[in-house]
């Protein structure tokens, strides 16, 4: 199995996730506004659930945004980890190459 990821993949993903977080709050508010004409048309448990959703919409938005924030933190941590690993791999390769005796590997005839 080969894992190949460009150096900007996680940064690009983070930018997309930030945009999704902003969009999510807007979409929930649009959902509440779109459901407004339905208010008063429900009875029983449907009314209870509709009223509960409206009452907790800000809380739901905050919880979802908090989850996305945690995802962003994870993406940022992975990005930093990959960048550090890439740099360490380069540093180790240069260190090993500088210690190698390439002249000893030449065949003289």
Poorly predicted runs: none
Task: Supply Rg.
Answer: 27 Å
Envelope shape: rod-shaped
- Helix percent reads over 70%
Q: What is the count of β-strands? A: 0
Mean pLDDT: 81
The fraction of residues assigned to DSSP E strands is: under 5%
Multimer state: single chain
Largest sheet data? none
How widely separated are the two ends?
42 Å
Order of helices and strands: HHH
Number of helices: 3
- By secondary-structure content and strand pairing, the structural class works out as mainly alpha
Written overview of the protein:
- By secondary structure, the chain is mainly α.
- The chain has a domain at 25-96.
- It is built from 3 helices and no strands.
- It has helices at 9-35, 44-55, 57-99.
- Helix 1 packs antiparallel against helix 3 and helix 2 (44-55) packs across helix 3 (57-99).
- The longest helix is centred in the last third of the chain and has 43 residues, at 57-99.
Question: Which features would summarize this protein structure in a list?
Answer:
single chain; 109 residues; mainly alpha; 3 helices; rod-shaped
Write the layout of secondary structure elements.
Blueprint: H1 9-35, H2 44-55, H3 57-99
Please sum up the structure shown.
The chain has helices spanning 9-35, 44-55, 57-99. By secondary structure, it is mainly alpha-helical. Helix 1 packs antiparallel against helix 3 and helix 2 crosses helix 3 (57-99).
